[in-house]
Amino acid sequence: MNTTAEGYKLIKKIKDAKFEVENLHQYNLLLQVGVRDLQIAVIDSSNNKVMLLEDYVIANTKTYRELKDLLSHLFEDHHVLMAGFWKTVRVSVKNNKFSLVPSSLFVKEASEDYLRLNSKFDASSEEILYYKHIKSDAICVFAMNKLLVEWIKSLYPNAEVQFIHQSSALIEGAINFAKVNKKDSMYLYIDRFKLHIMTLRNGQLEYYNQFAIKQFNDYIRYIMLVMKGLNKSQKTSDVVMWGYIGKQSPHYNEFYRFIKNISFGDRPDYLRFGFVFDEVQEHHFFDLYSMHLCS
Length: 295
Prior knowledge:
Blueprint: E1 8-15, E2 27-33, E3 37-44, E4 49-58, H1 64-77, E5 88-93, E6 98-102, H2 111-116, E7 126-132, E8 138-145, H3 146-155, E9 160-165, H4 166-181, E10 186-190, E11 194-201, E12 204-212, H5 217-229, E13 239-243, H6 250-258, E14 262-264, H7 286-290
Parallel strand pairs: 2-5, 5-9, 10-13, 13-14
Antiparallel strand pairs: 1-4, 2-3, 3-4, 6-8, 7-8, 10-11, 11-12
């Protein structure tokens, strides 16, 4: 599987020695699907232990049919992804087609209208889905390509399949982190192609948005823009960061030049990790882990 010949490349794999194919019926499968990457985690529901983690980069595709075909090859070559007897299957989509609606204002029949406020929607090729947040008074309305939705459902006809948006996992994760750490901070998630920014007030979601990143300076520009809009000080505001950035990297040093109270977030305490996961930095894969909270 560690090849680019098929249009994808496995760049990280951690497997607990106690992973047993015979126990898939008690494992929860987490899939996070983007147009250029895929993350996989397997959680043992009996003890909330992470049994498997994989991270793939995917070749650029021109259509969702090409992406679906590429993912099909990846799944067919995988040792467990085609198995149909998982306890649950949870799928997170990474895209910019979403809208957060206060639950008191949500009307299911108006889902398309909510979505069109923030993004273009093609009813012929996209399906509207929604997720009720557990820890905040929000419902995330989002779109996902119909081909991908139907293909994933067809793989797991005997399992409970749930679809969420990446933003929901990040929001649930940040609120849980704030509850444990007793801080209303600004939270950043550095993705491969995007910056996600969240802020909380009194433990509840105040702000969330995602920004496309083309060059490193875009990170600082968007952070400063949001801080200014929310009347936050770059000198005194507490900022917590997760994502694809090294603790000793030049990029982190650049963040620190502009934001003095910046720190890395921890690995979540609601999951257990064997010693084999020590090679994964604790602030990596926060969005993937946080999917576990979105039941």
